[in-house]
Write a structure and sequence with these properties.
single chain, 375 residues, alpha+beta, 5-stranded mixed β-sheet, 11 helices, 5 strands
């Protein structure tokens, strides 16, 4: 799988990194160099320390070059002052493995192991010639594991954002599809009776206004939710109070809206008095009923619809039946957003949904939802 994790070092870390490296390497300046006169060796050790530490200034922008410089300086320090080791070379290698994908940083690990092993072998230290390459591999592994962990966290956060976007899109589709469909029917009804029955036309217009206001309330709630997710609480107007999500108690109000648009709806409840329906399950059940009634209103040419909500044996059953004979059912029982969205809602809760012609006539949507939300 392609590594898409993006890691970087903030600019504000440049000075602290260089200062910390100089502080960590300063004890090396007190050690006597080996194999060269002290008057020449000490300036050389000082130069290596300064170069290795100063290179960290460009670690965020030129990690490969900085790693190469740090390793070469570390190998020279190891040869001149064996007690100092490789300075901060292994720390830089580990950081490089965190900044860049494994396919890139692995070559740096191989090169570091070879250079440090060769420097130790040239100095006649056989054990160190084995231990330093092993240490280089371990340092690279530590950085690569840190990158993998950070990449997994980033992928989980990205997936959570995508899931939340999908949830909001699903909610918006349900709300707008229902409300706009009802408004279109009400507007058509008002137009039909405008000349012959002004009072009925006026009543349809009032229902149209009520549906529009309801849609605005829902949209404000979604906008506020998105702003809260983005941390923009200060930008939310005081008037946009967070309206509670609809529940099963709002089914009668929903039925009244649909009935005002021309489709009589009867709501039947069974066993809900003793059942504890979680908010997420109740919201999904409400949206399934809302989408089913919207589709019946738009496609069914039905004269009545019955909504049955039943709680029994640890699950909630939601059923919407109508007596319609509309031929447009195939348009929304296939791959469209309506039934697909309802099935997705049920599946997210661990439930199932069936949508098919009713053997007794008309159309039936039935969803089985567990009365416990998934952990």
């Amino acid at each position: 799988m392609r590594d898409r994790f993006e890691a970087s070092l903030p600019t504000r870390w440049k000075a602290p990194l260089v200062a910390g490296a100089l502080a960590a390497l300063s004890p090396v300046l007190l050690l006597a160099p080996r194999g060269v006169p002290a008057e020449a060796g000490r300036p050389l050790v000082t130069a290596l320390v300064v170069v290795q530490a100063a290179a960290l200034w460009w670690l965020g922008s030129r990690p490969a070059v900085v790693t190469a410089v740090a390793v070469v300086c570390g190998a020279a320090l190891q040869w001149l002052v064996p007690a100092a080791g490789t300075g901060i070379a292994l720390v830089v290698l580990s950081t490089f493995a965190w900044l860049r994908p494994a396919r890139t940083s692995l070559w740096a690990a191989v090169g570091t192991a070879a250079v440090l092993g060769a420097a130790a072998g040239a100095g006649g230290r056989g054990v160190a010639a084995i231990l330093w390459p092993v240490a280089a591999v371990l340092a690279w592994s530590w950085g690569a594991l840190g990158r993998a962990w950070a990449a997994r966290r980033q992928a989980e956060a990205r997936r959570a954002v995508l899931e939340e976007r999908a949830r909001i899109a699903r909610e918006l589709h349900d709300v707008l599809a229902h409300t706009v469909s009802v408004m279109v029917v009400q507007a058509a009804a008002a137009d039909d009776v405008f000349d012959t029955s002004p009072e009925k036309a006026r009543e349809a217009v009032r229902s149209l206004e009520a549906s529009g206001r309801e849609a605005l309330v829902e949209l404000r709630r979604f906008v506020r939710t998105v702003r809260l997710l983005d941390g923009e609480t200060a930008a939310v107007p005081d008037g946009d109070a967070l309206v509670p999500q609809p529940t099963l108690a709002d089914l009668e109000r929903l039925a009244g809206t649909v009935e005002a648009a021309g489709l009589p709806v009867r709501v039947v409840r069974e066993g809900l008095e003793d059942a504890d329906v979680p908010p997420g399950v109740a919201l999904s059940a409400y949206r399934i009923v809302q989408e089913s009634l919207t589709n019946a209103l738009r496609h069914a040419r039905a004269s009545t619809a019955v909504v049955t909500v039943r709680a029994r044996d640890g699950r909630l059953t939601v059923e919407v039946r109508d007596d319609g004979t509309g031929g447009g059912r195939s348009a929304w029982t296939g791959a469209g957003q309506g039934v697909a969205g309802m099935r997705e809602r049920a599946a997210l809760l661990g439930g199932t949904l069936e949508a098919a012609p009713d053997p007794a006539g008309g159309f039936r949507v039935r969803a089985h939802l567990p009365l416990e939300e998934p952990a």
